[in-house]
Amino acid sequence: MNPAHQVPSITLGNGTAMPQLGFGVWQVPDGEAERAVGTALEAGYRSVDTAAAYGNEEGTGRALAASGLPREELFVTTKLWNHASETWKRDNVLREFDASLDRLGLDYLDLYLIHWPRPMRDDYLAIWHAFEEIAASGRARAVGVSNFRAEDLRRLGEVSPLVPAVNQVELHPLFPQRELRAVHAELGVTTEAWSPLGQGKDLLSLPEVAAVAARHGRSPAQVVLRWHLQQGIVAIPKSVTPARIRENLDVFGFALDAEDMAALDALGAGPAGRRLGPDPAGFDL
Question: 54, 108, 112, 124: which is the annotated catalytic residue?
Answer without folding.
Answer: 54
